[in-house]
Amino acid sequence: MKLKKSIISVAAFTTLAVAGGASASAQDIDVKKGDTLWGIAKEYGTSVDQLKKWNNISSDYIYPDQKLTVSSKEYYTVKSGDTLWGISSYYGLSVENLKNWNALDSDLIVPGQELVINFEDKSPSAPVNTSDEAAPAQEKAEVAPEAEAPKAEAPKAEEPKAEEPAKEASTEPAQEESVAKELSVEATAYTADCAGCSGVTATGVNLKDNPDQKVIAVDPSVIPLGSKVYVEGYGYATAADTGGAIKGNKIDVFIPSEDQARDFGRKTVTVKVLD
Fold first, then answer.
1. Which residues form the signal peptide (predicted)?
2. pLDDT per residue as tens digits for the range 15-74
3. CATH code of the domain containing 248
């Protein structure tokens, strides 16, 4: 699976650098056609549940060009005028969180300093007004002084604007494709990586020679062989196989590894048959 990865800051807890460019960075990827949450989670050493939590997704459906966050950490570069209170308010964190993650002994921060924001290890903070007037007097006194900023620091930039929350993934395939039929089915998984398995599908696809193929076994009276489909939680595939136990609204999805096929289990998913 090839995924376009954004470049992130590689930073330890507290380092000094000249501020510039984006104020914060996280590890994001662009979904490619055929990607699944299961495959992305495996590649980045996380779980499907974590991916869904970080991206506000309630179903297993993802679509091409969708941006997904695949790490719980973000790195924020301090600018002149920033305070721990203001940064914690922007991210909905507590000042103690920021100090603990970055081994800070005081509330003083300086321009160019990079701070770790760890969304998986935070305690909630009460909603606050992020304007300067609302900041407590003692916090405003801890503003990074202009005179201490590195000489090469770029001119003060505007405060980063809060991005809109990630929207729940669409439940439809890409717009250029139309759906001929949609049905709910019971899905299990099978593999060609087993003793006695020929690895050749009912339509002649050799899965041992082509382990990256996305293939499902179907009842041809329900989903015709050769149909292009989209399977919730599996992605785009071809109906290229049959099975003795696959009757009615049942499908078998092909997964290269026998262990991973067993882990897939039995679940109810939505299948969209594409025109």
1. 1-24
2. 333 333 335 555 788 899 888 988 998 888 888 888 888 788 888 888 888 888 887 777
3. 2.40.40.10
Quick check: 191 and 259 in contact, CB under 8 A?
Answer: no
Report d(CA 136, CA 157) in Å as an integer: 23
Share of the chain above pLDDT 70, in %: 69
CA distance 87 to 98: 9
Q: How far apart are CA 255 and CA 43, in angstroms?
A: 15
What gap in Å lies between CA 20 and CA 23, rounded to an integer? 7
39 and 121, same domain (yes or no): yes
Give yes or no: residues 267 and 221 share one domain: yes
The answer to whether residue 173 sits within a structural domain is: no
Q: Same domain, yes or no, for 143 and 183?
A: no
